[in-house]
From TrEMBL:
UniProt keyword Oxidoreductase, yes or no: yes
Pfam families: Aldedh
PROSITE patterns the record matches: ALDEHYDE_DEHYDR_GLU
Protein name, per record: NAD-dependent succinate-semialdehyde dehydrogenase
Listed EC numbers: 1.2.1.-
Residues the record marks as active site: E275
Length: 503
């Protein structure tokens, strides 16, 4: 086994050369080596983090459970009153300092992210800067939490509304965007005056640890931001949902787990924000700019190897442009290079694990068995890793798994359609409602389709729409609440009505 790189005074989190070789900043490494600041874990259990591209061991982390989670909640509960009592400007200044540290350490954070998640380094840098943008946005929004006055029914009364922080927030973040999801979830909560207990995904906990190390350097008081590492989320999730000191849960992940968390929170009527699964349609109408649609489909489908909740999962192309679109799209897909995220010119990294690989293989096999044609790709790359060729299928029918289930991989099934009204019905025929995309030039069609699609977000003539200034979230079984924008701040505030008599 490789020699561990960690200091003697650090009770856990040994880092291995397979990770540290990519880090430029000694001070970030030194801080990361001492996260989290909960003291030594109660037990001696650890879990390991591996690079999905190479299989190399990156780190061993303390495997925390109920006891450590409860300790983190207690710290957050004690710290919350003082954090909320600070002025909005003081909270804003701390968020600004954190933002600046994230930007300064972009290269190292991106390297950590690529090492543990596998995405190409350029995508990792983009994600880190996107995370920083959320911190910047909510540093500004912290100063814009407004109340209101209400016209009273009599002259001896004054009626007004104030907004106060919910309290301690338990957050659980996913593996596919392990930096931006941390920032998108906790920056509005911190701006509002809440404190945080965060459990990052067990596959990708290291970039969260590095970000929290920088949060400590930014000057967040002890107990305001708390990190819990765990190889399994069940015990941590139950404690976050069941502990009465936690007033809200924010989760991004599968719809199945979202349902479970809602049930666990129901006894306390605990508030939840859920960003869950998706099954995004991508529609190309006859009047679309085909070249632009191909560009957008490449972005919407193959970013992060298709492992995004807003990834285009079903590509509907109208008959008049179907053949042209398929030819141009397949040509572009064949040019996408697959490999280690640190490799030069790599466009697509590995799938996160072998379960993800097995799922995409099953979807391809099912489609081919039912009559679909493989236009390119369709195979795993190598026998040991989790790389899969970017794949395009045509001749898709509604009984195939790729038409009904979220693949979460670099697989693009193309469905030919004739009737513009029927394709909207087909696009809406799912329990999910997170994101949808379509390309068209006729203004009447643009408005009609945009309003008819049952999704929380719709990209029109674009394959990428996430922004810190816009509300991110879905309808139906894709979630509850919104993240980003001014609306994301409201989810962490309680409204209180004050009626003052005898004035």
């Amino acid at each position: 086994m490789s020699r561990k790189c960690h200091s003697e005074e650090s009770p856990f989190l040994p880092l291995y050369p397979s990770l540290t070789q990519h880090l430029k900043s000694a001070d970030l490494f030194g801080a990361l080596d001492r996260v989290p600041a909960l003291g030594a874990p109660a037990g001696k259990r650890t879990f390991q983090v591996f690079n999905p591209s190479t299989g190399e061991l990156l780190a061993e982390l303390p495997d925390m459970g109920v006891q450590e989670t409860r300790a983190a909640i207690d710290k957050a509960y004690v710290a919350q009153e003082k954090w909320a009592a600070l002025t909005a400007r003081e909270r804003s200044d701390t968020l600004w300092r954190w933002h600046e540290l994230i930007v300064t350490h972009t290269d190292d954070l991106a390297a950590i992210l690529t090492a543990e998640m596998g995405k190409p380094l350029a995508e990792s840098r983009s994600e880190v800067l996107h995370a920083a943008a959320y911190l910047q946005w909510y540093a500004e929004e912290a100063n814009r939490i407004y109340g209101e006055t209400i016209s009273a029914p009599s002259t001896d009364r004054r009626m007004l509304v104030i907004k106060q922080p919910i309290g301690v927030v338990g957050t659980i973040t996913p593996w596919n965007f392990p930096a931006s999801m941390v920032a998108r979830k906790i920056s509005p909560a911190l701006a509002a005056g809440c404190t945080i207990v965060l459990k990052p995904a067990e596959q990708t906990p290291l970039v969260a640890g590095a970000m929290f190390a920088l949060a400590a350097k930014a000057g967040f008081p002890d107990g305001v931001v708390n990190l819990v590492y765990a190889s399994e989320g069940d015990a941590v999730g139950r404690e976050l949902c069941g502990n009465p000191k936690v007033r809200k849960i924010s989760f991004t992940g599968s719809t199945e787990v979202g349902r479970l968390l809602m049930r666990q929170c129901s006894d306390q009527i605990k508030k939840v924000s859920l960003e869950l699964g998706g099954n995004a349609p991508f529609i190309v109408f006859d009047d679309a700019d085909v070249d632009a649609a191909v560009d957008g489909a490449i972005q919407a489908k193959f970013r992060n190897a298709g492992q995004t909740c807003v990834s285009a999962n079903r590509l509907y192309v109208q008959s008049g442009v179907h053949d042209e679109f398929v030819a141009k799209f397949v040509e572009r897909v064949r040019e996408l290079s697959v490999g280690d995220g640190f490799g030069e010119g790599v466009a697509i990294g590995p799938l996160i694990d072998r379960q993800a690989l097995a799922k995409i293989e099953a979807h391809v096999a099912d489609a081919v068995a039912k009559g679909s044609a493989i236009r390119c790709g369709g195979q795993r790359i190598g026998s040991d890793g989790t790389f899969f060729q970017p794949t395009v299928l045509t001749g898709i029918s509604s009984d195939m798994k790729v038409a009904r289930e979220e693949t979460f991989g670099p697989l693009a099934p193309i469905i030919r359609f004739e009737d513009p009204d029927q394709v909207v019905l087909a696009a809406n025929d799912t329990i999910y409602g997170l994101a949808a995309y379509f390309y068209a030039s006729n203004l009447q069609r643009v408005w009609r389709v945009a309003e008819a699609l049952e999704y929380g977000m719709v990209g029109i003539n674009t394959g990428r729409m996430s922004s810190e200034a816009a509300p991110f979230g879905g309808v139906k079984q894709s979630g509850i609440g919104r993240e980003g924008s001014r609306h994301g701040l409201e989810d962490y505030l309680e409204m209180k009505y004050l009626c003052m008599g005898g004035i």
